[in-house]
Amino acid sequence: MIQSTMQHGALTLSSLVEYSRRSFPEARIRTWTGEGFRDQSFAEIGDQGAQIANALTKLGVERGDRVATFMWNNNEHQALYAGVPSMGAVLHTLNLRLSPEQAVFIINHADDKVIFVDATVAPMLGKYLEGTPKVQHVVVVNGPADAITAPEGITVHQYDELIAGESASFDWSTIDENDPAVMCYTSGTTGDPKGVVYSHRSIYLHSMIITTTMGMRLSSQDTMLAIVPMFHVMSWGLPYAAMMAGATLIMPDRFLQPEPLLAMMEAGRPTLAAAVPTIWQGVSALLDAKPQDITHLREVVVGGAAVPPAMIKKFDGYGVRIIHAWGMTETSPLGTVARPPMGVEDEEKEFAYRVTQGRFPSLVAARIIGDDGQELPWDGDASGELEVSGPWITGAYFEPEGNVVDDSKFDDGWLRTGDVATITPDGFMTIVDRAKDMIKTGGEWISSVELENIIASNPAVVEATVIGVPDKKWDERPFVLAVVRSEDDTDVESHKKFLEDLVPRWQIPERWSFVTEVPKTSVGKFDKKRVRQHYADGDYTVLGDPEA
Amino acid sequence: MIQSTMQHGALTLSSLVEYSRRSFPEARIRTWTGEGFRDQSFAEIGDQGAQIANALTKLGVERGDRVATFMWNNNEHQALYAGVPSMGAVLHTLNLRLSPEQAVFIINHADDKVIFVDATVAPMLGKYLEGTPKVQHVVVVNGPADAITAPEGITVHQYDELIAGESASFDWSTIDENDPAVMCYTSGTTGDPKGVVYSHRSIYLHSMIITTTMGMRLSSQDTMLAIVPMFHVMSWGLPYAAMMAGATLIMPDRFLQPEPLLAMMEAGRPTLAAAVPTIWQGVSALLDAKPQDITHLREVVVGGAAVPPAMIKKFDGYGVRIIHAWGMTETSPLGTVARPPMGVEDEEKEFAYRVTQGRFPSLVAARIIGDDGQELPWDGDASGELEVSGPWITGAYFEPEGNVVDDSKFDDGWLRTGDVATITPDGFMTIVDRAKDMIKTGGEWISSVELENIIASNPAVVEATVIGVPDKKWDERPFVLAVVRSEDDTDVESHKKFLEDLVPRWQIPERWSFVTEVPKTSVGKFDKKRVRQHYADGDYTVLGDPEA
C-alpha cells in the first residue's frame, strides 16, 4: 500500500507555547490586582515557562513527575501551564475548594513532588502537608516564602527567587503527543475523587475545538474573561486555547465576587466570558442593583451545571448572549455547545435550542443507552444514560499502579457520563437528570433538573434544588430546597400555585424548605449529596410535609 | 512514567462522514444546474458514499487503491470525497485543466484503477485513456455511459446504475489515521507534476483549522460558495470542513463564469465564498457593468495567487471583505490567513495587514532562510525563502516505489516553498516573490510580484505580469505583459508616468506588451514559464525596447 507523504507534526504543548511566544506580541495575560491589571505577553509567559522548567530540572523534576499547583487564575499559573507540561512533567492542578481530607488524599494519590501555591492560600495548604510525606518542594507564588509553615523534609522556595537568573530558553523537543501533560481530579460527589490524565494530544485537539465555530470561537480579536478556575478542568481549556488563538485572557485571581468581576469587566472590556451559573447569578443580582453596560461581551459561555432558562432570558435583557455548554472533568471538558441551527428565525424556536445543552462537536461521538443496555433513538423523546467517546475524553481513571477501566464508568470504550439525556433528530442534547437524581413517584419518573428550572423561573426564587425524599404513599416525592428573594416569598401555597400551569399536578412538590444558600460542591454545582444528608438528619425546617 | 488516561480517538474521514451524516440534517450540498440548485443533505451524501464504497468493493477496489475523479464541483464529487477515503481507498482528484501529456503522465504515475468522470468532460478523458493501459474502470457521472468511448480493457459504467441497489451502510471501522486518503498533483510550472498524498490525520486537522477563528471561520450558520475546484487541492479543504462544521456548500459545477456565479449568489445568498483572484476579477467587472447586492457575503477568502491590493479596495466598495490567504498543494493548502490583530483601528494600518499573506495558524511552523542557509529574523524587512512544517504539510513527494525527499524541495524536514518572503515581528508574512522570479538588474533585486501589484493598481490595467528578460547593459530588466481596459490605454509613457512616484526610478520597466489575456496555469496563476517562452520566441509585440 502507498504511504501518505505528510509530515507527522506532533500535537505537543511545547510547540504550542513556542507558537504563542512568537506569533502574538499584542495578546496579553491580564491578572486583576484589585485595582487594575498586571499584564504579560505570551512571549513573557513563554520566557517564564522556560525559567520554571530550568528551575524544576535543578530541583530534580524528571519526565512524568507530578508538579502541582494550588493557585488562583493569574499570570504565574499561566506560566506553569506553559512550562510544566512542555518540559515533559505533569501539571496537577489542585482544587482550592476541596475538603482537607480530599486534598490530602489527592496529593498522595497523585504523588505530587512539588507544589506551587499562591501566598493567600498557603496557610490552607500548610495544614495539608502534615499528611503528605512525599512532597519535596513547595514554591510560594505572589508572596514571601514564610507565608507557609511546612513540616520537616519539605523545602520551601519563593517563586521569583527560584526562577531569577534562570535561562529563558529550554530544549523541549522530545515529547511524544501521547505523553501525559495535565492531571485533574473529579470533584467526587460520590466516593473518592478520581484522577484523569490529559495528554498533549488531547489538550491540543481540545484547544483547537475551543477556537472553532463549534466551540467558543475564541480568536485573536477577543479578550476572554476566564472566571472558571484554572484549578478546575484547566479553566475549560482557555489557557491553552488562548495561546493557540492569540486571544487576551483576563484572570480574576482571587477576586471572584460580583463587584470585582464587574469592575474588571469595565476596565478590560472583555468580548467573551466563561463561568458556572452561580457566578452569573451573583453578577446579575448586582447588575440589577447597580446597572452597568456589559454589551462589550459578545458571548458568555456558561456550563458546569445546567443554566436555568430564566437566566438566559435575563442576560438577553442585558444585551448579552448566553451560550449554554456541557462538559465534565472527564471530557476536558468541552462536550456540547448550544448554537441554534441556521435558518431558525422564530425567536421561541431559537430559544428552545438555546436551553438545550447543545450539539456535540466533531470528534465527540455520543449515544444514549436505555435501562436494557440498548442504544436509544435521537428522537428528542427517548431518554437514557449519555455515553461519549473521542480523543479528549477519558478512557480510564488514573491509578499509580496503572490506569483502571471500571465497568460502572465505561461501556465498551465509551465513557458513561451518569447524565440522563435526550437527543433531538438534529443532534441537540438535553440533560434531563443525573442518573441517580431521577425521582420515582408512584411508578412515574420526575426529572429533578426540569423541576428545578421551572421552580427557579418564579421571580420570587433566587435558586432551588430538588431531591427525592421517602414518602409512605408514593415511595418517593420531590423536596424543594430554595433561596427566595425576600421573607415575603416563603408561602408554600403561592409557590405551588405558580407551578400549576407549568407541570403536571402530580409533580408539584408538597415539601419545601427556605434557606439562605443551597449547598454547592467545590465547582459550584448543587451538592445533592449534602442536601440529602441534611434532610435525613432533620436539619431543614420542612414546610407542607403531609406526613408531619 | 504514568500514562495518559485519554482515549485515542483516531482522526479518520470515516468518522467525519458518520458525524456529518447524523449531526446536521439542515445542512445541504447545493449544486447549480444553470437554473437552480439540486440539493442533498449530508445524510444523503453519506448514504451515497457508502453505496459508492460497496460498488467499488465489487469492482475489486482494495485498501490503498487509487480511485480518480475527473469532475466539477457537484454533489456526486462530494459523495466520492466521502466514500472513497472512508473505505480505505485513495481519492485522486485529476485537474480538468491539465495538458493531455500531464494528464496521461499523472494517471499512469498514480496508477489509477478507476476514474469517475463528469459526462461533460468525458470526451476529453476518452482521449487520454489510449495512453493509460492500467485503468480498469471508468464511471460516467451526470450523463449516459456512452458519453465516453474507452479503449478495450476498460469497462465503462454509468454512475446511477452502478450504485443503484447498493446498501447505504458500509463498515469503515478499520482505518488508521496515518493511512493515505487523498492524492493531488502540483500544477507543475517546472518539470513533471509532483504527487502529494494527504492522510486522514492531515485532512482532519486541516479541516479543524478551516473551522477555527484562525482559518475561514466556517460554521453551521454559514453557506459557503465553493468556487475553488474540488480537482485542485481538495477545494481548499472545504468539502471536509463543511462536514465538520455543518455548513452548507454551494457547488458551481461547470458554471464558473461571472454571470452564473452572480446568479447562484443571488439565488443561494452565500455568507462566505472562496476562489482565486482571476475569478473575482471577472465577477468585479460584471458587477460594475450590472450592479447586484452581494453584501450577504460576510467574507470572501482569496488565495492561490497574490491578491492585488486594488482588488481588496474594490470589494470593500461592494461592502464585502476580502480575506487574503496563502497556501499551496503541498500545504493542504491553508498556510496563512490575513486578519489584522486586535486593536488596529487606523484604517490605513489595518489595510497594510490585509494585503499581507497573513499569519500562520497554530501547527504551521515557519521560518525564512537566507542565501547562506541561515534563518533570518522576523523584522518585516529581511527576505528569504519561506520554509514551513506541520502535520498538513508534505514531507516528501509521492513515487510508486516509495516517497522521495529531495534536498532541492526539503530542508531538514521543512518544506521549501520556493516563495521569497518577509515576516513582521507580529508574524505577518508577505511573499515578495517566487525564488526564481526575482529580477536581478545591475546588481539590485526587483520583486516582480511587488511591481505587478503596483502596475495593476493603475485603473487602466486589468491584469499584468512581470518577468525578467535579458538586457545588455543591466544583465536583466523587467518586462511587463499587461491587459488594459481599452485601446486608449496602450501608451507606454503614461504607464511609466503612473509608476514614477510609486517605485524607484531604476525599477520602472522599459519593455511593455499589451495583450488580451495573460497566460495562466491550470489553477489560475500567471504562467510565467509560458510568458518567458513566448518572449523568447518573439511572440509579443514589445513596445519601448531600448535595444530594438
Automatic annotation (TrEMBL), chains A, B:
Pfam families linked to this entry: AMP-binding, AMP-binding_C
Q: Tell me the PANTHER family matching this sequence.
A: ACYL-ACTIVATING ENZYME (PTHR43859), BUTANOATE--COA LIGASE AAE1-RELATED (PTHR43859:SF4)
Enzyme nomenclature, EC number: 6.2.1.-
Q: Which organism is it from?
A: Gordonia humi
Q: What is this protein called?
A: Fatty-acyl-CoA synthase
Q: Which SUPFAM superfamilies match?
A: Acetyl-CoA synthetase-like (SSF56801)
The UniProt entry, under Gene3D superfamilies, shows: 3.30.300.30, N-terminal domain of ligase-like
Give all residue intervals belonging to the AMP-binding enzyme C-terminal domain: 450-525
